[in-house]
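re: that chain from earlier
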Amino acid sequence: MARPSSSRLCPGPIKAGAEGQLPGDEAYSFVFKIKQRALIGIPYGEEPVTIYVIGDKTECMRQAGPLKLSADASDHCAGPVWVRK
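^ sequence. v structure.
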């Protein structure tokens, strides 16, 4: 049995949308931790929460500033991702 040519297996990148236009609004995400406490106030863990910020990376860093971020540096303003309107 003959193998299909490589061009049939992987056609390459597919262009979506009009040439030169962005696919949507630029957004970045970061993860921060919410401390979990028992009713009597004893801490017993943290819950990770992912937040998406519409804007550039500078805006993401500004929004993430006052929050307790994840210890993993790859979680700090990851992106960009594109959000369609």
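The chain has two helices and three strands.
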